[in-house]
Each structure stands twice: as C-alpha cells, then as structure tokens.
Amino acid sequence: MDTIKILNKEFSAQDFHEMPPCAEMLDRYRLIARNYASMENAIAVLSDLRSNTSYLYYGRFAQTLGMDKGNREEIVSSIWEEEIFGLIHPDDLAEKHRQELCFFHFVKRQPRNKRNDYYLTSKLRIRSRANSYIPILHRMFYIPASVDGSLWLALCLYSPLLFDFQAQCLIVDSSDGQMAELAKQSDIQILSARERQILRLIDRGLRSKEIAQMLSISIHTVSRHRQEILARLQVKNSIEACRLAKEMKLIQ
Asked: Are 138 and 199 in the same domain?
C-alpha cells in the first residue's frame, strides 16, 4: 500500500542513531500494553519503529474476531499487524493508514513535552467470527524517545465501540480533554500549500510551463516542486501522485 511506504520512510528518516538502548523503557510499555489488553479486553499492539518489531496482546475481545490467542505475548518482526489488517474493511484500512500518517506529522509538530499528551481515536469496521462487519474503536498513541524526541513506539488499541461519535476521527489532548477532528487540523501538511496547489494544477492537465506562468514563478521552481512531491509521496510519476493525493484527501 502506498501510504504504508510513506509511513515506513517517515519512520526510518527519524534519527535513532543517538538513541541509547532503552530496554527498561520498552519493558515498561510492553507491560502497559499487556495491561490494556487485560483490563479492557482489548487487542493491544505495541510497535517498535526503530527495530521493526511488534508486541501483540489479546484480551477477550479477540475471540469475537475469531482470534483465539489466549493470554500470551506474540512478537512479530514487523510494525504492521497484518493479521488484524486482514479483518478490517478495506476502505477503513486505507483511511486508517492515512490518518496515522497525518497524526504522525501532527505530533512531530508539537513541543516535545506535549507529544505524549495526544492520541488518535477513530471508528473502524472489522470482520467478526460470524463473518459480518462490526464497528470498533481504534486508538493510537505515538510514544517519543526520552532522549531526542523521536517517535519511537506506537501503541494501537482495538476494542468494542461502546458509544458512537459523529466524527470519523478525532485527535484528543488527554491533558485537558480537548478534541479536534483530524480533517480540520490546518497544520497537518504532508505536502505544503504550494505543493498542493501545483499538484491540483497538474491534475487539471497543465504543463510545467503553464503552471509557472499562472503562478508567476520560474519553470525551474515548478520542476523542483514536482520532484519534491514525488519524493514526499514516494511515487514515480505525476499520475500516481495525483491518484495517491486524492486517496489521502490532500487534494480534491
């Protein structure tokens, strides 16, 4: 999936080199994830973005999905919980990855002392043991490394949707209870405003020379923006860039 490619690049671009071994901190968050699964009967997935490893814990809700894992820790060599992804409605899965990418950018823009305060909450449809889709609540936390502020761990929680809420996806500030819809966060920018503007013109079929004339910039500047767009979206050409940007709702 294209969005996963972008997420992988964003995660790996973080500077983990100066980060010392954090076995004690990792063990602490593994215990937190295990306790979420136990206390809420949720499925908890703790992903180490540096080592590309995930730790999965299964509460009783997993049985509703036909995942009879028992009360044990499962360790997989990937940050992507493919077995769970296979149960999520395809439309919701694509949206989930887009949301996580946008949330990653949002958290990276926050002061280091605030990054732990935010989490993402959204509604997903997931296939149950009875082979029908049921609504669930998905929550996600990015956990920074204490040394350099890199987003080191990601904790995803899957649990029953106990009550509905109007928005599809919310960013929650757990320190004061403030909530905002993800789609309305003006500072979430995978592409800059100028890059989105140029991509919209490309999508209309305009050539670089025409775009340069319309925006009163040089054709070299347009070419530079085009290359940056391809690099940011991890695609090979403008057609793919336009398609992916529409899927991710970066342009209309």
From this structure: no
Per-residue pLDDT of the chain (252 residues; tens, 9 = 90+): 478 888 888 888 887 766 666 888 899 999 999 999 999 999 999 999 999 999 999 999 999 999 988 888 999 999 999 999 999 999 999 889 988 988 988 888 888 889 999 999 999 999 999 999 999 999 999 998 866 678 999 999 999 999 888 888 999 999 999 998 876 554 446 788 899 999 999 999 999 999 999 999 999 999 999 998 988 776 789 998 898 888 777 887
Helix-, strand-, coil-residue percentages of the chain, each rounded to 5: 45, 25, 35
Is 252 domain-assigned? no
124 and 216 co-located in one domain: no
Whole-angstrom Cα distance, residue 81 to residue 117?
24
**Within this chain, do residues 11 and 116 fall inside the same structural domain, yes or no?**
yes
134 forms beta bridges with 126
Listed in sequence order, the residues at least 6 apart from 110 whose beta carbon sits closer than 8 Å to its beta carbon are 118
Q: Is residue 38 part of a domain?
A: yes
Which CATH number is 211's domain given? 1.10.10.10
Domain end (from 136, 163, 184): 184
- Minimal CA–CA distance to 142: which of 175, 183, 114? 114
- Residue ranges making up the domain that contains 238: 193-247
In whole angstroms, give the CA distance from residue 23 to residue 14: 19
In the chain, count of helices (H) and strands (E)? Answer: 9, 8
Please report the beta strands in 49-194, taking only residues with DSSP state E, as ranges in sequence order: 53-58, 73-76, 118-127, 133-144, 151-160, 169-173, 178-181
Q: Is the pTM of this model over 0.90?
A: no
